[in-house]
C-alpha cells in the first residue's frame, strides 16, 4: 500500500538516469522492464528466456512463479522487444542475471539498492519498484483502458464470476495499452533528451 504515482516525465527521468549509472547492464535493463511492464519485481527479475515466445509474442509466467499461483500471460509489445533481445544476447537462460553469479537472477537486494540509488540521484521524491505497478495502473486508467485489462496486466485475479468463468487474457488489449504507455514515456524521454 502506498500513494506514489509517477508522472510520465518522472518515469522518463528514471529511464534516462539508468543510462548514466555504472550499474550492470542487467540491473539497468531490469529497471526499464519493470517500468514498461509494471510486473512484480520477482516476476521480472527471475524471468527466463524460455518464458518469452517470440513467435506468438507472449510472455507466459508459470503458475509456480506467480503470486496468485496461476499462469500469467502478457504480450511482448514492440517497445520492449529491443530490451528483451539485448537481455537474451547474454546467452544465459536467465534474462536478468546477477553481477557475480551469472547463473542466478539479480537478487532482490541488488535491485532494491539500485532503485534507491536512482531515487537518490534524482530529485523527484521517494519511489520503489512497486510504485511502477501503481503508476501503470493509474496512468492507463486515465487513458481510458478498461479496469479488467489493467488487472490482467498487473497479474491480478479477476473477481467474482469473471474469475470462475472467463479465462480470457485480453492480450490484444493489453498490447495496445502497453504500447500506449511506452509511447507516452518515450515522448518524455525525447523531450528531456532534446
Which labels suit this protein?
194 residues, mainly alpha, 3-stranded antiparallel β-sheet, 9 helices, 3 strands, 5% strand, globular
Topology:
Blueprint: H1 8-20, H2 25-37, H3 41-45, E1 52-53, E2 58-61, E3 72-75, H4 81-88, H5 108-121, H6 129-142, H7 147-154, H8 160-165, H9 171-193
Antiparallel strand pairs: 1-2, 2-3
Notes on the protein architecture:
The chain is mainly α and 194 residues long. The chain is built from nine helices and three strands. A three-stranded antiparallel β-sheet has the order 1-2-3. 34% of the residues are buried. The mean pLDDT is 92.
Strand content: 5-15%
Taken from the alpha-carbon principal axes, the silhouette is globular
| Strands, count | 3
- Overall structural class, as computed from helix and strand content, comes to mainly alpha
Low-confidence stretches: none
On the 0 to 100 scale, the average pLDDT is: 92
Helices and strands, in N-to-C order?
Answer: HHHEEEHHHHHH
- Provide the helix percentage: 40-55%
Sheet with the most strands, sense and barrel status: 3 strands, antiparallel
What is the number of helices?
A: 9
**Biggest sheet: strand arrangement:** 1-2-3
Distance between the termini: 36 Å
Amino acid at each position: 500500500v502506498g500513494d506514489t504515482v509517477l508522472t510520465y516525465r518522472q518515469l522518463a527521468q528514471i529511464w534516462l538516469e539508468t543510462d548514466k549509472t555504472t550499474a550492470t547492464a542487467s540491473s539497468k535493463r531490469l529497471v526499464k522492464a519493470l517500468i514498461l511492464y509494471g510486473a512484480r519485481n520477482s516476476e521480472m527479475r527471475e524471468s527466463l528466456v524460455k518464458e518469452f515466445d517470440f513467435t506468438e509474442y507472449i510472455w507466459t509466467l508459470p503458475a509456480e512463479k506467480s503470486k496468485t499461483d496461476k499462469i500469467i500471460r502478457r504480450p511482448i509489445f514492440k517497445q520492449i522487444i529491443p530490451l528483451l533481445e539485448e537481455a537474451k544476447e547474454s546467452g544465459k537462460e536467465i534474462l536478468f542475471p546477477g553481477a557475480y553469479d551469472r547463473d542466478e537472477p539479480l537478487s532482490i537486494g541488488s535491485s532494491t539498492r539500485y532503485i534507491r540509488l536512482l531515487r537518490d540521484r534524482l530529485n523527484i521524491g521517494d519511489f520503489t519498484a512497486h510504485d511502477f505497478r501503481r503508476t501503470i495502473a493509474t496512468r492507463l486508467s486515465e487513458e481510458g483502458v478498461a479496469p479488467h485489462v489493467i488487472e490482467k496486466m498487473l497479474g491480478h485475479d479477476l473477481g467474482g464470476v469473471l474469475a470462475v468463468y472467463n479465462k480470457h487474457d485480453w492480450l490484444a488489449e493489453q498490447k495496445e495499452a502497453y504500447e500506449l504507455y511506452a509511447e507516452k514515456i518515450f515522448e518524455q524521454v525525447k523531450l528531456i533528451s532534446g
